[in-house]
UniProtKB/TrEMBL annotation:
<dbReference type="InterPro" id="IPR010664">
    <property type="entry name" value="LipoPS_assembly_LptC-rel"/>
</dbReference>
<dbReference type="InterPro" id="IPR026265">
    <property type="entry name" value="LptC"/>
</dbReference>
<dbReference type="Pfam" id="PF06835">
    <property type="entry name" value="LptC"/>
</dbReference>
<dbReference type="GO" id="GO:0015221">
    <property type="term" value="F:lipopolysaccharide transmembrane transporter activity"/>
</dbReference>
<protein>
    <submittedName>
        <fullName>LPS export ABC transporter periplasmic protein LptC</fullName>
    </submittedName>
</protein>
<dbReference type="GO" id="GO:0005886">
    <property type="term" value="C:plasma membrane"/>
</dbReference>
Length: 95
């Protein structure tokens, strides 16, 4: 009986260490990244020489936004404008 007791302790210690090793490997494993192109920062559309005009309900021009180049990036939903120019028109106040 004494033989089993002395052999059982190192064997159980070895099994516990093996289990902890597999658990640690699983816990620290990085998730797989997909290479489907969604992580790329490429524009999905490009507009050159763009002019946007906003009018109010009465038909008067409120502002004009123009840019030489507009690029939209779908990965983070950002939009970049090259040389933007915003002109805001104010209604004449009565005197």
């Amino acid at each position: 009986m004494k033989r089993w007791g002395s052999a059982l302790f190192p064997l159980s210690l070895l099994l516990i260490l093996t289990g902890l090793t597999f658990w640690l490997r699983y816990a620290t494993e990085l998730p797989q990244t997909k290479h489907d192109g969604k992580l790329r920062h490429d524009p999905d559309y490009i507009i050159t020489d763009a002019i946007l005009r906003k009018i109010d309900q009465t038909g008067r021009l409120k502002y004009t936004l123009s840019a030489t180049d507009i690029r939209h990036y779908p990965d983070d939903e950002s939009t970049d404008m090259l040389k933007p120019n915003l002109v805001h028109f104010q209604a004449k106040s009565p005197r």
